[in-house]
Amino acid sequence: MAPPDRVFRTAVRPEDREAVRRIVRSSGFFYQDEVEIAVELVDEALQRGDASGYHFVFAEIDGIVAGYACFGPIPGTGASFDLYWIALDDDFRGQGLGGAVLRVAEERMHAMGGARIYAETSSRPQYEPTRRFYERRGFCLEARLEAFYYPGDDKLIYVKRLLPRADETARQPASLPGPSAAPVC
């Protein structure tokens, strides 16, 4: 049996609205208002393009949108990006697709001048796999905002430093260490 055809794309299409809705709902993690926010970001990108500040990576397997990431530069910062969403359709979990989507998104952020990625998640027990996902991929827990979402549901903020591009490494002063592949937590 041939491996499935895996394609990554960055162009947002109108049909991605329903794909994102399906993907985010499939996890069972998100409240309905959060599902609608995920779809609103697709709408913003469709209407305003790059000016929206929302950029996407969609993973398709055999023509089906199986997962996606949404990210964007954080206004008022020089090189920081928010990873707003990374989600997989529940039917495609456990196949390494989440890590692949994240790698492609990181490459895009880096190409756009990103040096740090910030990802937020919940402290609820059901998000333990999400927290492990980030930690295994070099993210470090940077902050905990107690009872941010609801009582007993803290906001956890993770950060990952991206490796500098070759042309950036040459410009760094010798006294300052450059970003490394290993997380510095």
Overall description:
With 185 residues, the chain is of the alpha+beta class. The chain has a single domain (6-161), classed as Gcn5-related N-acetyltransferase (GNAT) (Aminopeptidase). 31% of the residues lie in helices and 31% in strands. It has 5 helices and 7 strands; from the N terminus they run βααβββαβαββα. The protein has helices at residues 16-27, 32-48, 97-111, 128-136, 166-169, and strands at 6-9, 55-61, 64-73, 80-88, 116-122, 140-150, 153-161. A 7-stranded mixed beta sheet has the order 1-2-3-4-5-7-6, with helices on both faces. Helix 3 links the parallel strand 4 (80-88) and strand 5. Keywords: Transferase. This is Acetyltransferase (Modular protein).
